[in-house]
Amino acid sequence: MAANAIDQTRRMLSLVTYLRERPGAHVADVARAFGITEDELISDLDVLPMCGTSFRGGDLLDIDTDGDRIWWHNPDDVAEPLRLAADEATALLVAARAVATLPGLREGDRDALVRATAKLEAAAGEAAGASSRLSVTFESEGGVFAEVDRAISERRRLWLRYYSPARDELTEREVDPIRLFAVGHTYMEAWCRLSEARRTFRLDRVAEVRILEEAAAPPELELRDLSEGLVQPSADDPEVVVEVGPGGRWVAEYYPHDRADELPDGGLRITLRTPDPASLKRLALRLGSDGRIVSPAGLADSAREAAAAALAAYQDA
Fold it and tell me: What confidence score (pLDDT) does residue 180 get?
């Protein structure tokens, strides 16, 4: 099961100390020591060079690997005592206090964060006073994130009330969470016990979440490669053709598609694939006069019927 964000942060902090003491360490040895795969280690090493001792981007970790050994070229530079400017100390204190209030944060982590914040306040002096007049309020998604993160850490099942925009309905389901990730929005990948299949849930569409006593037991699954984006239609998915006017050209920017041909009126004829063509009826309703579904014929007829029903309901209101 994939590590959650807090566990990965702990590991990367430990990794910095470990590599400082072992110049030229072998990738295989380091991965074994941390109980992770070599691919996971390489992923961590891709992130570490973007970290450093200054919020302004200076003094970054100069760490690289040739695939066999790992080299840290500037350990002495970043080992110098950390000195924060007033704006850096203020930003760090505000962020620390906000994170400490997140629901679902493990008590051990919360206590450690509170202690570290107290030490930073003592060292920051006047900057600490300025930070106390600022605050950050997390959106509701933050609480969902904390519960999901805790469930992943404790390997527990979750109960959700989830809004599906394709069907415009709330459903209740139990899921075994696998990992959290962000692609524009924050998502949870999980094994859904309702559909008995892997599903992806956008956190801001979770209306309610509860950690259950049952242990999470997702089947062994190969994690999806998200480097090409979250939505990756299959060549076996049904083909749908949509024609949009100039006001609907945005569809080609938001929906992965096979092709987009220019139309004489400045619109586009877009060919795309989707495992659930019926979900595009809402797109047709949203487009209104700016677009229409051309094929398949059954979906086009269904979209027209839905539009007529919506218009009739509006006129009767």
Answer: 83
